Amino acid sequence: MRALLRDLPSFTLDQGTGRSRVFTRVELLTIAVITYMEQRYGIKRVAIGGILGLLLEILQSPREVDPLACLVVVTGEAKVSYSRLSETVTEGLVVPLAPIFHRLDTYLGVKPQQRQMEISFGPTVIQKITAHSS
Length: 134
Known about the structure:
The protein is α+β, with helices and mostly antiparallel strands. 37% of the residues lie in helices and 12% in strands. Helix 2 packs antiparallel against helix 3.
């Protein structure tokens, strides 16, 4: 996180530093999108730095919840747009937002984390039931 804040200084302008730093939901969403683009697609922070302002602007605009929401990012031209996965995209990197929203909602406690429950498939005693004939 420190490296991300160091490389993308737009996040360090508003609030405290270090452990006292408090992030807004939009900033957390932006960090999650940046991390996703770095890890999934190999986008370098230098390229992300060129679109960071646009990314923040797009992500803080009020919108309806859409499970098909995505971002279309063109780093060479510094363009970011909000779209739907069902729309045709002619150019750019399409970043689906549903998995990022889910991850962030789970982190913030909006959605309870799903847990794997133990199913008791151990030995079981089955009793014989006798049928009475009439």
